[in-house]
Specification:
The chain is of the alpha+beta class and 216 residues long. It has 6 helices and 7 strands, in the order αββαβββββαααα. A hairpin with a 4-residue loop joins strand 3 (50-57) and strand 4 (62-63). Helix 3 (122-143) runs parallel beside helix 4 and helix 4 (157-166) crosses helix 6.
């Protein structure tokens, strides 16, 4: 085994979560109350503070094979030994094999990254960001609320693709598909399709609302 492959493969404690998909550089707050995961977190806090998050399909009961490593940034112990913690997504990984199941799952994993881009992704990233702004603007108009994009929306294409994917709600299977993609362009293109569909839907609802209000 070469030095680089030793670095790319490691044992990782796993934390499966129903309908939760973590992406690199995105925060994930957690409330740890199950005994086995309290054991896991106490062990992790004595080492490198890292563990793997894998999405569980609550209907099928299956656990995804690709997840994202989380690092504990801050934690608070509660009186009854529960914990509140803030974690941050790091590298993505693929499970190679499970080493043990109890008291918590530990697997041998390999890190995965996006392939180097073959074209300038900035125009595609700009298109996705504009679609995002359109969706926010139409949502604000439709709900008559002051909704704005946060200031921390990334500029770089790969980071933007993770940010958009992490902010899709109620579509964990779609998020899992985006997490597993290893082509930034493909991820941004799929997000462009999703945001275009959302924008068109919101625009149609806005027209209906305006028409209805004019008749009143």
């Amino acid at each position: 085994m070469t030095s680089s492959s030793r670095i790319a493969v490691r044992e990782l404690p796993l934390f499966p979560l129903p309908d939760v998909v973590l992406f690199p550089s995105r925060p994930l707050p957690l409330h740890i109350f199950e005994f086995r995961y309290r054991i896991m977190m106490n062990t992790i806090l004595e080492s490198d503070r890292r563990f793997g998050v894998l999405m569980v399909d609550p209907v099928k009961g299956t656990i995804a094979n690709v997840g994202c490593c989380a690092e504990i940034i801050h934690y608070q112990r509660l009186p009854d030994d529960r914990m509140k913690m803030l974690t941050l997504g790091q590298q993505r990984f693929r499970v190679l094999e499970y080493i043990r199941e109890k008291p918590y799952r530990v697997a041998l994993v390999e890190w995965i990254e996006d392939q180097p881009p073959t074209k300038d992704l900035r125009p595609l990233a700009s298109e996705v960001e504009q679609l995002l702004r359109d969706v926010v603007r139409l949502s604000a108009k439709l709900t008559e609320q002051n909704i704005e994009l946060p200031e921390d929306v990334p500029d770089l294409p790969t980071e933007l693709s993770y940010w958009v994917a992490s902010n899709l709600y109620g579509v964990a299977a779609e998020q899992q598909s985006l997490l597993e993609m290893r082509d930034t362009a493909a991820r941004l293109e799929r997000e462009s399709e999703i945001l275009t569909s959302t924008r068109n839907h919101l625009a149609a609802r806005t027209v209906l609302k305006d028409t209805f209000n004019q008749k009143l």
